[in-house]
From TrEMBL:
NCBIfam families per UniProt: Glp_gephyrin, molyb_syn
Transmembrane segments: none
Pathway where it operates: Cofactor biosynthesis; molybdopterin biosynthesis
UniProt entry keywords in alphabetical sequence: Magnesium, Metal-binding, Molybdenum, Molybdenum cofactor biosynthesis, Transferase
Pfam families: MoCF_biosynth, MoeA_C, MoeA_N
InterPro entries cross-referenced by the UniProt entry: MoaB/Mog-like_dom_sf, MoaB/Mog_dom, MoCF_biosynth_CS, MoeA-like, MoeA_C_domain_IV, MoeA_C_domain_IV_sf, MoeA_linker/N, MoeA_linker/N_sf
Function: Catalyzes the insertion of molybdate into adenylated molybdopterin with the concomitant release of AMP.
Classification via PROSITE patterns: MOCF_BIOSYNTHESIS_2
Family per similarity comment: Belongs to the MoeA family.
GO biological process: Mo-molybdopterin cofactor biosynthetic process
Domain MoaB/Mog: 188-325
Highest classification ranks of the organism: Bacteria, Pseudomonadati, Pseudomonadota, Gammaproteobacteria, Methylococcales
An example Gene Ontology CC term for this record: cytosol
Record protein name field: Molybdopterin molybdenumtransferase
Length: 414
């Protein structure tokens, strides 16, 4: 589809086609390393992990109470058992529970071999060493069986899997203290442009502060990546080409901002064609149309636009999925669902738009979304105030208040 707001003579590549092209061009990195479990949060497993033990390892109590044998229960009648001792968590009862006896037991403590039931402590009456059980006491309850959670030899975590805090807890519960994970991706990023000034310095006329490198540093923060900030490169063909070639020798991925458009000082595509290869340039997305993807040697390259909101959108929607694939992490689809739009939105057919929205949910569980304000690709303030994207399809035109739209919450991205 031709963008109604563009001078393009041919249809732009859709974002879905661009993602397919990237997926076909990128393959997970090889190489792995052993890490202590405590350092493996967020890393991608390089091999499956199996449990060397049963979890639980012993029969244990599911609550604080008293352990007894079901053969001592007289159905429908109250009964009394003598206290034989205590089983603590970490200090099991060492004796033998005789008929007519019970054991004080705490949550997680080993249940004596002769017992098969635990009653909650609140359900009994204690008088010295005599424990009185009510008539409605249920036997064969409140005991966790050996291997109830995981049996020895069971698969604990598949690969590739990006390890979560829960995964670390599960592996630790099996006594595993080290895992094999995929090596970290080596990523370099830098900004291009004569107009850029470093944060912290006085701003000269005609200059702007370089916000894009700060954005990329945050967007690329991930335990699977080793990220290097290569600073700012001015609009100079020779300097840019030298930086590209040098970085391509030392990194798996280069991400740049600026210089990918069609201005006289936008050299990224030209240099990429000369020293590498361009897979595609320009896609039907707003903001972010002038995006370049290619390769220099074995190093993948993403040339993002210069406007900061376009940097955020293209990085989250295009670069991050590519990096996940390259790192060996499983594919991930961001959660999207329908909400009622409470404000009118301007939209021309031709490109898929990612507008900034403020999402809310009412007491009935219904979702509502409003525009976060001005949608220019240079307006970071409305991006900061928003909590979701309002995703408008290529063929969509203006949205009226009350229309249903698709939203993608920020908190569930990546």
């Amino acid at each position: 589809m031709i963008d109604a707001c563009s001078l393009e003579s041919r249809p732009l590549m859709s974002i879905d086609d661009a993602l397919d092209r990237i997926e076909a061009a990128i393959h997970p990195v090889s190489g792995a390393e052993k890490l202590a479990l405590k350092n493996a949060l967020g890393r991608v497993l390089a091999e499956p992990v199996y449990s060397p033990v049963n979890i639980p390892h012993d029969r244990n109590a599911a609550m604080d109470g008293y352990a007894f044998a079901s053969c001592d229960v007289v159905e429908g009648q109250a009964f009394t058992l003598n206290l034989a001792g205590t089983s603590w968590a970490g200090r099991p009862f060492q004796g033998r529970v005789q008929p007519g006896q019970c054991v004080r037991i705490f949550t997680g403590a080993v249940v004596p071999e002769q017992a098969d039931s635990v009653v909650m402590q609140e359900h009994v009456q204690v008088r010295d060493q005599a424990i009185h059980f009510p008539a409605d006491t249920r036997a064969l309850q409140n005991i966790r069986k050996v291997g109830e959670d995981v049996k020895q030899g069971d698969l604990l975590c598949v690969h590739p899997k990006k390890l979560t805090a829960v995964d670390l807890g599960l592996l630790a519960s099996a006594g595993i203290d080290e895992v094999a994970v995929k090596r970290r991706l080596k990523i370099a990023y830098f900004s291009t442009g004569d107009e850029l000034s470093s944060v912290g310095k006085p701003l000269e006329s005609g200059k702007i502060y370089d916000s894009n490198r700060m954005l990329l540093g945050g967007l690329l923060e991930d335990p699977c990546y080793s990220v290097s900030d290569l600073g700012v490169v001015p609009d100079n063909r020779h300097l840019l080409e030298d930086r590209f070639i040098e970085a391509s020798k030392n990194y798996d991925v280069i991400v740049t901002t600026g210089g990918a458009s069609v201005g006289e000082a936008d050299y990224v595509k030209e240099i990429l064609q000369r020293c590498g290869e361009v897979n595609f340039w320009k896609i039907a997305i707003k903001p972010g149309k002038p995006l370049a993807f290619g390769k220099i040697g074995s190093c993948h390259f993403f040339g993002l636009p210069g406007n900061p909101v376009a940097v955020v959108v293209t990085c989250q929607q295009i670069v991050v999925p590519a990096l996940r694939r390259l790192s060996g992490a499983p594919s991930f689809k961001a959660l999207r669902f329908s909400a009622t739009c409470t404000t009118a939105l301007r939209k021309s057919a031709g490109r898929r738009e990612y507008q900034r929205g403020i999402l809310s949910q009412d007491e009935n569980g219904e979702f509502w979304v409003a525009s976060a304000g001005r949608q220019g690709s240079n307006i970071l303030s409305s991006m900061s105030q928003s909590n979701c994207y309002i995703i408008l399809p290529e063929a969509c035109n203006d949205v009226q208040a009350g229309d249903k739209v698709t939203v993608e919450p920020f908190s569930l991205l990546i």
